[in-house]
């Protein structure tokens, strides 16, 4: 059963008295009416055919793109959350009961029956990492018959003139009628399923297509309604995660969205109370939600698939898990930076693709990015030296290269610069680590040179100052060629010696490139 279908009930129009009393009863009222003319229309059938061909996997589309819930309707959507939580509770009890019955029936018997298939495996139910197959879930696929057909593979039953093939009109008609059960719940098929109704293939196919298009149409409408501020959106699962955090008291309130990027949405929240005494939740938090729409992350593969910390896991994972890995990576990197004393958000908690950290800013106002703030020349100089220092610390103490360092990912707060956005940060021995570092240096150097800091090193000098390397090329092209040569050398070394750690002494000194 679809929990969202249940949750939609309060929105439905007025129904009979018994429906308004029963919270679950009203879902029928969202029925979609259709005329016979609609169903039989040639034109429609053709369109539907096209649509069907264009979207082979309706479920995937529905999960990936919506229905989104926006940051602006927090109050009404918590009804949805509430309904989902109730549904979850209900499902859990139902499953527990099933298990009890299963146990009772089976007793000590050697042969046992299983009710496994009747469980309401709830998509939100489990916190384990194994629960994320639902994005390719086909449970409601109207094209997939639930039970295997009873006609054997040879295609017929019986002998001689009593032969019954799978094309038999009666058998087929009954089967078609039964298959109507697989249509979306809101598509009313009447009680034909209870009668001995036989639908011809033609009628069944027309109905099937219509049911399917109605399902998609209703999904689209729903999506449109909720999509009005799509940029600020998170999907229902994420909302549930957030809701749980609020519910557990860890967060006081989620006030709104501070940023929507291609790969993440960031919210502000007031911190609540920690379950454990030793951990203090900051008064204000930033919640970074890594977007689960998968496409944007494809161009970021290069940051993670060559990072040996994640390499082994990368190849085996589905896209959703890879997104979680970004969140995890950001958490690890922030922790390293925190330990080195670099000003950066402090990690509060990581839940799947949602990372909660301390908020840089005050009273819901995030600290401005370096690109947006106008600093006095004195502060500008101060900021420059601080960043030079941080880059060295990052490299030498954290063994990291930011890899997206620029005035966009540095915040000015409390009279100093704070580094954020480190999900893509890599270790210097990453196959492209030094190239990333060079790019960072170029951004920083250009920003401060344009900003009038006369002392600012140029990008090549900065690179050497941060890495401790001594690349002498005096032009960019040669410099980059040398960087790539070093990276190549490192890779060859790894090929021959099998481990990257050999590039570092165990106490975290910088890599030694010339052996
Ligand atoms: P993206 O990958 O979308 O660039 P960021 O981590 O850079 O993600 O976050 C986007 C924006 O959200 C930042 O530019 C900043 O304005 C805001 N932001 C992110 N983290 C915090 C934080 N801890 N405190 C305050 N603002 C933050
Ligand atoms: Mn950013």
From TrEMBL:
Q: What is this enzyme's class at the first EC digit?
A: transferase
Q: Which UniProt keywords apply?
A: Antiviral defense, ATP-binding, Cytoplasm, Immunity, Innate immunity, Kinase, Magnesium, Metal-binding, Nucleotide-binding, Phosphoprotein, Ribosome biogenesis, Serine/threonine-protein kinase, Transferase
Localisation per UniProt entry: Cytoplasm
Q: Please name the GO terms that the record assigns under molecular function.
A: ATP binding; metal ion binding; protein serine/threonine kinase activity
Q: What broad class describes the main subcellular location of this protein? A: cytoplasm
Q: Name one GO biological process term.
A: defense response to virus
Q: Which cofactor does it need?
A: Mg(2+)
List the residue ranges of the region (Disordered): 124-160
EC no.? Answer: 2.7.11.1
User: InterPro entries, alphabetically?
Assistant: Kinase-like_dom_sf, RIO-type_Ser/Thr_kinase, RIO_dom, RIO_kinase, RIO_kinase_CS, Ser/Thr_kinase_Rio3
Q: Which Gene3D superfamilies match?
A: Phosphorylase Kinase, domain 1 (3.30.200.20), Transferase(Phosphotransferase) domain 1 (1.10.510.10)
Task: Provide a GO CC annotation, any one.
Answer: cytoplasm
Cite the record's Basic and acidic residues compositional bias ranges.
136-147
Q: Which reaction does it catalyse?
A: L-seryl-[protein] + ATP = O-phospho-L-seryl-[protein] + ADP + H(+); L-threonyl-[protein] + ATP = O-phospho-L-threonyl-[protein] + ADP + H(+)
Is the keyword Phosphoprotein assigned to this protein?
yes
From which domain of life does this come? Eukaryota
- Residue limits of the RIO kinase domain? 223-468
PANTHER family for this protein: SERINE/THREONINE-PROTEIN KINASE RIO1
Q: How does it assemble?
A: Interacts with CASP10. Interacts with IRF3; RIOK3 probably mediates the interaction of TBK1 with IRF3. Associated with 40S pre-ribosomal particles.
Family note: Belongs to the protein kinase superfamily. RIO-type Ser/Thr kinase family.
- In Swiss-Prot or TrEMBL terms, this protein is called Serine/threonine-protein kinase RIO3
Q: Which gene encodes it?
A: Riok3
């Amino acid at each position: 059963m679809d929990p969202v279908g249940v949750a939609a009930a309060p929105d439905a129009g007025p129904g009979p008295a018994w429906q308004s009393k029963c919270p679950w009863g009203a879902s029928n009222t969202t029925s979609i009416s259709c005329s016979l003319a609609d169903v039989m229309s040639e034109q429609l059938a053709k369109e539907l055919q096209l649509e069907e061909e264009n979207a082979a996997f309706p479920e995937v589309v529905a999960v990936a793109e919506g229905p989104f819930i926006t940051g602006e309707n927090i109050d009404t959507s918590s009804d949805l959350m509430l309904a989902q939580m109730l549904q979850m509770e209900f499902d859990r009890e139902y499953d527990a009961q099933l298990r009890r019955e299963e146990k009772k029936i089976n007793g000590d018997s050697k042969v046992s029956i299983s009710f496994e298939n009747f469980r309401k495996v709830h998509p939100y139910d489990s916190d384990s990492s194994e629960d994320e197959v639902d994005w390719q879930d086909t449970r409601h696929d109207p094209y997939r018959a639930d039970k295997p057909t009873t006609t054997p593979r040879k295609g017929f039953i019986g002998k001689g003139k009593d032969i019954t093939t799978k094309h038999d009109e009666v058998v087929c008609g009954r089967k078609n009628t039964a298959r109507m059960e697989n249509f979306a719940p809101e598509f009313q098929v009447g009680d034909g399923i209870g009668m001995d109704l036989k639908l011809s293939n033609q009628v069944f196919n027309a109905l099937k297509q219509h049911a399917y298009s109605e399902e998609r149409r209703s999904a689209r409408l729903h999506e449109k309604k909720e999509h009005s501020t799509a940029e600020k959106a998170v999907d229902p699962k994420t909302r549930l995660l957030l809701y749980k955090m609020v519910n557990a008291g860890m967060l006081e309130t989620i006030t709104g969205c501070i940023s929507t990027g291609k790969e993440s949405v960031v919210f502000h929240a007031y911190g609540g109370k920690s379950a454990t005494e030793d951990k203090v939740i900051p008064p204000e938090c930033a919640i970074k939600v890594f977007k689960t729409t998968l496409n944007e992350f494809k161009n970021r593969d290069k940051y993670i698939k060559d990072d040996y910390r994640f390499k082994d896991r990368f190849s085996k994972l589905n896209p959703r898990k890879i997104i979680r890995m970004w969140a995890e990576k950001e958490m690890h990197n922030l922790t390293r930076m925190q330990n080195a004393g670099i000003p950066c958000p402090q990690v509060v908690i990581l839940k799947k693709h949602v990372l909660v950290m301390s908020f840089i800013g005050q009273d819901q106002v995030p600290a401005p990015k370096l690109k947006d703030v106008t600093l006095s020349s004195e502060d500008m100089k101060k900021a420059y030296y601080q960043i030079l220092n941080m880059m060295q610390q990052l490299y030498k103490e954290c063994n990291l290269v930011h890899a997206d360092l620029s005035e966009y990912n540095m915040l000015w707060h409390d009279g100093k610069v704070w580094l954020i956005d480190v999900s893509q940060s890599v270790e210097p021995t990453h196959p492209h680590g030094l190239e990333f570092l060079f790019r960072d240096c170029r951004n920083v150097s250009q920003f401060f040179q344009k900003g009038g800091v006369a002392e600012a090193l140029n990008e090549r000098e900065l690179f050497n100052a941060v890495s401790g390397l001594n690349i002498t090329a005096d032009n960019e092209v040669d410099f980059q060629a040398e960087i790539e040569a070093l990276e190549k050398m490192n890779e060859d070394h790894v090929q021959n010696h099998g481990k990257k750690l050999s590039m570092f002494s165990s106490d975290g000194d910088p890599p030694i490139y010339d052996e």
